Amino acid sequence: MPTALIVMDLQTGVVDGLTDDHGVALLGRVAKAVAAARDHRIPVIYVRLAFRVGTPDISARNRAFSALIGRGGFGDDDLATQICEMVAPVEQDVVVVKKRVSAFTGSDLDVVLRSMGITHVVLAGILTSGVVLFTLTQAADLDYAVTVLSDGCSDRDDEVHRVLCEKVFPSRAEVVSVGEWIASLN
Questions:
Q1: What pLDDT digit, counting tens, does each position of 129-166 carry?
Q2: How far is residue 12's CA from residue 171's CA, in Å, rounded to a whole number?
Q3: pLDDT at residue 186, rounded to an integer
Q4: Which of 46, 74, 123, 168 has its Cβ near the most Cβ atoms within 10 Å?
């Protein structure tokens, strides 16, 4: 089944919110998944969150992002929106910019996936209760097969991460570790 690895919100402004040990460990595991995907000619698609200058693309009613209105720092060229060097894209990778929590909302991700003939998405990213949950739900509703890399995701609350990976996600996706996913490629 044509597969793509989707690496979401692993940008400096989001990773910096994790503890150093937690963030570095997560980036290391995702870097292994990215390397394995490239070794197996699986496309790697990066999704990052960024807004236009002056944030006209953020509604004051949006509880998740309205605090960024007029504050700056999450523009397309700002450091906070750049993908962390440890997992940085290379020339053949696709980078998608989104405007909301789901990787699909306000982006051309679905167009890219369908144009590439992708029917199976493998998800990694921060936050498990944010981009991973919302993207998984939308991907499943769009009839993609979905795999979540449980240790390729992280959340500010370890219990929320555990409940999502163990109790919520399995009804819509396969949930495996980075190591299990890499082993399945061979």
A1: 999 999 999 999 999 999 999 999 999 899 999 999 99
A2: 31
A3: 86
A4: 123
Helix (H) or strand (E) holding 174: strand 174-176
Q: What is the value of pTM for the model shown?
A: 0.94
How many Å apart are CA 78 and CA 137, to the nearest integer? 29
Could you give the CA distance from residue 61 to residue 72 in angstroms, rounded to a whole number? 18
> Can you tell me the mean pLDDT for 100-115?
97
Q: Which of 165, 158, 162, 154 is nearest to 131 (CA)?
A: 154
Q: Is 143 left (phi over 0), alpha (psi -120 to 50) or beta?
A: left
pLDDT > 70? residue 20: no
Structure tokens at 99: 């405007």
- In 26-163, DSSP assigns E strands to 44-49, 94-98, 120-126, 145-154
DSSP one-letter code for 79: G
The CA distance from 52 to 43, in Å, is 27
